[in-house]
């Protein structure tokens, strides 16, 4: 005998950083919000990512959002009563050849042409000054002052705590089995409890494609296992977060001396079982990239490798905005770079719900761009 | 350390903190150091606390020393070899790079 | 060297050697990998070159292993020595490090025989230099003929008494033995005594060790309620609480032991399911009567499948080998059953003593879950019991989240020396059983790899598996 539905003004499916951010921002506007999370807050990509907070290198549609997000990161304590481990350590994308540097120059110019000045070209001398441990053959790069990194888990917990303090009800260990219309409401069904609200927000990450389908939108999402590895503690030798133009690499050293290496190499994801499998060939290539840019890494010890389950869209930018049907909103599919955007996307979703519009341009993220996309199974 | 009567073992010369010492072939670095009552092998990177060998089977990672320039080597899993150079591990070790971290990396 | 084998066996202790001998004799192409320079595992460590002259010190149980070793050495097995296996994937790709160079090998069947490790013993001061695990002291004795003079032995379990007995036979002075198991264990163990009597020989042997140790005049204290290991940069004294009074013994060496538990890291990282055994207070892999796990082609033999001792390990090794041979078509089902039956029967007999021993030597809660908040539970990252309790109060649900809250479990030992403590501590703080926690997710590499090894990883072309 099922008890009656729990109702709210809005239901958020998915308790990652985007789900928590959306819930928090709605609660700030006085809405009564329920978050339903199939495992526990930040169990997946939100808790396992590299924590990068950057404008550097983003696809153009994302740049205004990243810019607005960074401003929020700098005063994140005002939003969630916690510094979230945010450090404005700067980010650098390194060029190893003239061709790469030339590509970076073009990029820099293009970014400036749309009104953003944060990306700066640096030469070899400047590169070596900023990164004393960089390999001698590297000739320059793009430098972004102000970019940095934060602590994913700490951030998620802070958003969660703040949301709860504002009255958000969070249900964990409760997978949503399906979503459908029930009268004028959307209904989310779980094994022992139904939830109803006129508004439903799909923040289901790598599981967002299925939810999208249930609420009437086509979202050809692929669940990918993006791999990361971390070393034993090393003496501190690098502050900025480092990427590479010619190689898939993201490289950062924490204050405690451990070095986190990523770059988007894929393992194998089994989202239905919450499992990922590592691919040591990919990790090997990742290791080569790290050693190529930072020769001292040859002697470092890799103590752990892992992979989170991330939702990736075919065009590698997220789905943000209203769905086709009344009351449906999406914020998922961040394709490996959603963490930094969470403080702004939650606000955008709250804008859309409370006033129907938002100041930042989100047209490129609309789910309808996939209307005619051939859906590929295998989520 | 108490030494039990043993069959004769060939000896090798190894270096500990640049001082030469004799070690029995077949012994691990940990055994060789313990044999001369060396209990402290390293200080931890977290608090600088002194540590020595603990489990002697390669699962506790407390016996970490620097061997022939390489850090984080498990002394209890490494057999002594003639000419081996062993040093105490100081926290996270050294990179060999001359970097003034706080000044340079702005 | 070849990169593909019929059967790969990880670990050359009794289980691994037995499995390798059986499998190779039936014509399988067998590779055995072990971190050590020679066979023997922990129990028969250094048996191929045992330096100690007087055989009565290590005792018959040790030298009995020679038969197993001889049979193994006479078998056509490829033995990779000094090889650290850091992964076994679901597809049975084996990541191995040898001389700072890593490669991937593969096999049709894998038998994980990585054995057991000693349980953690989290008491104040347990990280001080001069404090070691008693099993570690036994390794030193067997492979180097070294012993600690005037050490204080602390804890419980057959291995503690065996080592004390071996020290006594070797003429090494023992300062004191402080036994920490509860006297009520004896009463609780009584119902299982009849089963244990099937191994009467073992029981009497254990009793004889204790009797002789006591007769030798060494200070022997039972029902010790609490322990503190004291010293600044090194151990200088052991303090113990007995019958309500604290006493101190000056010493620079303490040898701790409160039992052994399966070393689960490789098997768990391979995807093998484990369950919490509340009697034994450890994780045990889920295996069937053929030592098979939930991962096709991967089985677990020896103490890694559940603590049983050297003989049980050999029987399990043989059983898993027969199954592997059957799986690759070297023997038929009827032959497999016939060949394995004597080992299965012997294994059942050998395990009868276990419930009795498990209860008799069950470590007491205060030595599993430190009451003193200052006690370190994670040696690698120096995280205290108090920090873990605070994390639980902040909403930390289990060992996986604990890594993010506190770094506990993020060090190089990958939970080997903290997982048992932390799981019980979190469960108790949350008021739930350990089984309700999200168990620690273990991943390859199960031992650290040099980045240069990973960068130069040698992977063979895909061969027909």
Overview of this structure, please?
The complex is a heterotrimer of chains A (379), B (106) and C (465). Chain A contains ten helices and 22 strands. Chain A has helices spanning 17-28, 45-48, 63-74, 76-80, 98-113, 124-130, 152-165, 208-214, 280-293, 342-355, and strands at residues 6-7, 10-13, 33-36, 52-53, 91-95, 120-123, 140-144, 148-149, 169-171, 178-182, 185-189, 194-197, 199-202, 222-231, 241-244, 250-253, 259-262, 268-270, 275-277, 301-312, 319-322, 328-332. Chain B has one domain: 2Fe-2S iron-sulphur cluster binding domain, sarcosine oxidase, alpha subunit, N-terminal domain (Ubiquitin-like (UB roll), Roll). Helix content of chain B is 10%, strand content 31%. The longest helix of chain B is centred in the N-terminal third of the chain and has 7 residues, at 29-35. Chain B starts with a strand and ends with a helix. The mean pLDDT of chain B is 92. The mean pLDDT of chain C is 95. Chain C has 465 residues and is of the alpha/beta class. Chains in contact: A-B, A-C, B-C. At the B-C interface, strand 1, helix 1 and strand 5 of B face strand 8, helix 5 and strand 9 of C.
Determine the CATH superfamily of the largest domain in chain C: FAD/NAD(P)-binding domain
The largest sheet of chain C, given as strand count, sense and whether it forms a barrel, is:
7 strands, mixed
CATH architecture of chain B: Roll
Low-pLDDT segments of chain B: none
Number of helices of chain B: 2
**Elements of chain B, N to C (H/E):** EEEHEEEEEH
Q: In angstroms, what is the radius of gyration of chain B?
A: 16 Å
Q: List the domain count of chain C as a whole number.
A: 3
Unreliable parts of chain C: none
Helix content of chain B: 10-25%
Number of domains of chain B: 1
Question: In the CATH hierarchy, what is the class of chain B?
Answer: Alpha Beta
CATH architecture of the largest domain in chain C: 3-Layer(bba) Sandwich
Any idea what the shape of chain B is? globular
What is the CATH topology classification name of the largest domain in chain C?
FAD/NAD(P)-binding domain
CATH class of the largest domain in chain C: Alpha Beta
| Share in β-strands of chain C | 15-25%
Look at the structure and give the mean pLDDT of chain C. Answer: 95
Derived from helix and strand composition plus strand pairing, the structural class of chain B reads mainly beta
């Amino acid at each position: 005998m099922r008890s009656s539905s729990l109702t709210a003004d809005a239901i958020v499916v998915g308790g990652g950083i985007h789900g928590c951010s959306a819930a928090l921002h709605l609660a700030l506007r006085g809405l009564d919000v329920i978050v339903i999370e199939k495992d526990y807050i930040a169990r997946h990509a939100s808790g396992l990512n590299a924590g990068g907070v950057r404008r550097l290198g983003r696809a153009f549609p994302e740049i205004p959002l990243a810019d607005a997000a960074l401003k929020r990161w700098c005063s994140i304590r005002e939003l969630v009563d916690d510094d979230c481990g945010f450090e404005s350590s700067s980010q650098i994308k390194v060029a190893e050849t003239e061709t790469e540097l030339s590509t970076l120059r073009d990029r820099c110019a293009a970014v400036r042409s749309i009104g953003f000045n944060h990306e700066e070209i640096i030469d070899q001398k400047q590169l070596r000054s900023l990164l004393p441990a960089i390999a001698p053959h590297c000739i320059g790069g793009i430098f972004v002052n102000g970019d940095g990194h934060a602590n994913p888990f700490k951030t998620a917990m802070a958003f969660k705590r703040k949301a709860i303090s504002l009255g958000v009800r969070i249900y964990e260990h409760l997978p949503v089995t399906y979503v459908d219309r029930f009268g004028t409401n959307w209904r989310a069904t779980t094994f022992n409890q139904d939830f109803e609200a006129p508004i439903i927000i799909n923040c289901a990450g790598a599981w967002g494609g299925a939810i999208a389908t249930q609420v009437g939108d086509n979202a050809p999402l692929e669940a990918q296992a993006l791999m990361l590895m971390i070393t034993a503690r090393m003496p501190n030798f690098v502050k900025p977060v480092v990427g590479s133009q010619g190689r898939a690499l993201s490289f950062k050293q924490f204050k405690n001396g451990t070095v986190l290496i990523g770059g988007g190499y894929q393992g194998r994801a089994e989202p239905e079982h919450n499992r990922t499998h590592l691919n040591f060939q990919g990790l090997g290539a990742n290791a080569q990239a790290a050693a190529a840019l930072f020769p001292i890494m040859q002697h470092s010890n890799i103590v752990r490798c892992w992979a989170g389950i991330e939702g990736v869209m075919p065009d590698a930018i997220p789905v943000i905005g209203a769905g086709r049907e009344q009351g449906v909103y999406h914020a998922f599919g961040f394709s490996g770079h959603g963490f930094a955007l969470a403080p702004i996307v939650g606000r955008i979703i709250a804008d859309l719900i409370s006033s129907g519009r938002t100041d930042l341009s989100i047209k490129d993220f609309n789910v309808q761009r996939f209307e005619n996309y051939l859906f590929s199974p295998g989520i | 350390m108490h030494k039990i009567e043993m069959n004769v073992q060939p000896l090798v010369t190894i270096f500990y903190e640049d001082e030469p010492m004799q070690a029995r072939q077949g012994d691990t670095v940990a055994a060789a150091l313990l044999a001369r009552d060396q209990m402290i092998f390293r200080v931890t990177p977290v608090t600088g606390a002194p540590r020595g060998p603990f489990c002697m089977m390669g699962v506790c990672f407390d016996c970490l020393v620097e061997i022939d320039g390489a850090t984080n080597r498990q002394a209890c899993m490494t057999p002594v070899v003639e000419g081996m150079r062993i040093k105490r591990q100081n926290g996270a070790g050294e990179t060999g790079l001359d970097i003034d971290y706080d000044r340079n990396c702005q | 060297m070849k990169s593909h084998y019929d059967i790969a066996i990880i670990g050359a202790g009794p289980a691994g050697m037995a499995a390798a001998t059986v499998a190779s004799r039936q014509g399988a192409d067998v590779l055995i990998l072990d971190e050590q320079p020679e066979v023997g595992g922990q129990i028969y460590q250094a048996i191929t070159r045992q330096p100690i002259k007087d055989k009565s010190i290590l005792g018959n149980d040790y030298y009995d292993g020679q038969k197993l070793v001889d049979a193994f050495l006479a078998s056509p097995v490829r033995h990779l020595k000094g090889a650290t296996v850091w992964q076994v994937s679901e597809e049975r790709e084996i990541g191995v490090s040898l001389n700072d160079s890593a490669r991937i090998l593969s096999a049709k069947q894998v038998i994980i025989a990585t054995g057991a490790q000693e349980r953690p013993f989290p008491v104040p001061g347990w990280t001080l230099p001069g404090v070691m695990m008693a099993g570690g002291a036994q390794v030193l004795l067997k492979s180097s003929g070294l012993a600690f003079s005037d050490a204080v032995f602390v804890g419980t379990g057959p291995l503690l008494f065996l080592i004390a007995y071996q020290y006594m036979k070797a003429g090494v002075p023992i300062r004191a033995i402080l036994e920490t198991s509860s006297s009520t264990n004896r009463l609780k163990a009584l119902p299982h005594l009849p089963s244990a009597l099937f191994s009467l020989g073992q029981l009497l042997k254990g009793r004889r060790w204790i009797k002789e140790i006591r007769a030798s005049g060494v200070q022997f204290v039972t029902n010790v309620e609490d322990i503190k290991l004291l010293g600044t940069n090194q151990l200088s004294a052991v303090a113990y609480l007995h019958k309500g009074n604290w006493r101190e013994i000056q010493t620079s060496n303490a040898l701790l032991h409160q039992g052994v538990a399966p070393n689960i890291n490789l098997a768990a990282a391979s995807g093998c399911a484990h369950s919490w055994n509340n009697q034994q207070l450890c994780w045990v892999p889920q295996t069937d009567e053929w030592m098979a796990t939930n991962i096709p082609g991967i089985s677990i033999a020896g103490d890694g499948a559940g603590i049983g001792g050297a003989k049980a390990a050999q029987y399990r090794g043989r059983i898993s080998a027969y199954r592997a041979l059957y799986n690759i078509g070297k023997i038929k089902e009827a032959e497999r059953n016939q060949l394995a039956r004597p080992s299965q029967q012997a294994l059942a007999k050998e395990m009868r003593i276990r419930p009795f021993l498990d209860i008799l030597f069950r470590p007491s809660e205060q030595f599993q879950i430190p009451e003193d908040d200052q006690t370190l539970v994670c040696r690698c990252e120096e995280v205290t019991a108090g920090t873990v309790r605070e994390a639980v109060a902040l909403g930390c649900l289990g060992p996986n989240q604990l890594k993010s809250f506190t770094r506990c479990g993020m060090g190089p030992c990958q939970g080997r020396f903290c997982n048992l403590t932390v799981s019980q501590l979190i469960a108790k703080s949350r008021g739930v059983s350990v089984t309700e926690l999200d168990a620690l997710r273990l991943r390859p590499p199960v031992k650290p790899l040099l980045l240069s090894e990973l960068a130069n990883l040698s992977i063979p072309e895909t061969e027909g598996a």
